[in-house]
Amino acid sequence: MKIVLLPSEIATVLVEALPYIREFAGKSVVVKLGGAAIDRESDLALAQDVLLLRSVGVRCVLVHGGGPQVDAMLRRVGKEPEFRDGLRVTDAETLEIVRMVLVGKINRDLVATINSQAGSEPVAVGVSGEDAGLLTVTPADSAFGFVGNVTDVRAELIHRLLDDGLTPVISTVGADASGQPYNVNADEAARAIAVAMHAEKIVYLTAVPGLLEEANDERTLIPRLTSAELRERLKSASVGKGMIPKLKACADAVDQGVNFAHIIDGRVHHSLLIELLTDHGVGTMVRKEKSW
Ligand SMILES: Nc1ncnc2c1ncn2[C@@H]1O[C@H](COP(=O)(O)OP(=O)(O)O)[C@@H](O)[C@H]1O
Ligand SMILES: CC(=O)N[C@@H](CCC(=O)OP(=O)(O)O)C(=O)O
């Protein structure tokens, strides 16, 4: 159903955005798109949001995951995905598939989608954490295989792309000092990027409305909490697998200088714009101190 707004209502919506545009212009916002929320139609709406934010001066960076898509490709080649503590156990063959799917497929598709909406000025640039030392990692516990923890982010490379009017789209494969690639959890990589960029906000787009009191009941959305409250919640049994790295990343992001972290529903078209540029808070907001 298409809702038709009166011209005066459209003007009201635009004017409502004005203070938010003023607040965020010139600031960096890291948007992490989870594999669970990747879908042709919603990616198109997200591409429009990112371009609109860029055009009003928000320094928007898109970081993507792709866990379910990697699972599907592993199964196609006859390998069963294996996780420990929410991290993929990554042997050499799995690492090849992770790179193929994240860097070779999802990153390319997102760049193409953004550029398809950009008119005569294609602005999206795909980069992998392996490129020019963007994400340096050290190996995590050897039980995980080729899984790395981010130890350094060359944030100046991202800022240079943004200064040139480009929109970076980042795959979260990192490399160690010798150039060996490692698989990195995308929630954690996005956190490291946001902290290194001194971002104002990090926004996680996923396939639920936000953090839920009861994981299976969307009516139990928790609209806002502090990082300390979030760390308490992490101990609770109602927080399941995929949400654990996301919550930890949100708490760490705000404790390490990012002003706001949000978990919002990537399935809802234009949820990013609604979060940033309207009076309607959506999803779950995390801050270091209570500010409400
Ligand atoms: N308390 C909770 N609130 C919301 N989601 C939860 C909770 N516990 C577990 N989850 C699960 O976490 C998933 C999000 O993580 P994940 O599937 O890894 O997403 P992404 O691909 O976006 O990183 C949700 O789809 C939901 O099934
Ligand atoms: C080490 C590790 O677990 N890496 C993740 C990277 C992708 C990811 O995090 O994707 P989502 O954001 O869709 O979950 C993986 O291989 O699935």
TrEMBL record:
Limits of the Aspartate/glutamate/uridylate kinase domain: 28-264
Keyword Amino-acid biosynthesis included in the entry's annotation: yes
Protein location: Cytoplasm
Record-level Gene Ontology MF annotations: kinase activity
Gene3D superfamilies documented for this protein: Acetylglutamate kinase-like
Alphabetized InterPro entries for the sequence: AceGlu_kinase-like_sf, AcgluKinase_fam, ArgB, Asp/Glu/Uridylate_kinase, Glu/AcGlu_kinase, NAGK-C
Pfam families: AA_kinase
Residues that hold substrate according to the record: G66, G67, R88, N183
Record-listed E.C. numbers: 2.7.2.8
UniProt keyword terms in alphabetical order: Amino-acid biosynthesis, Arginine biosynthesis, ATP-binding, Cytoplasm, Kinase, Nucleotide-binding, Transferase
Pathway assignment: Amino-acid biosynthesis; L-arginine biosynthesis; N(2)-acetyl-L-ornithine from L-glutamate: step 2/4
Primary localization class, coarse: cytoplasm
Record function comment: Catalyzes the ATP-dependent phosphorylation of N-acetyl-L-glutamate.
Identification of the protein by name: Acetylglutamate kinase
Phylogenetic lineage: Bacteria, Pseudomonadati, Pseudomonadota, Alphaproteobacteria, Sphingomonadales
Gene: argB
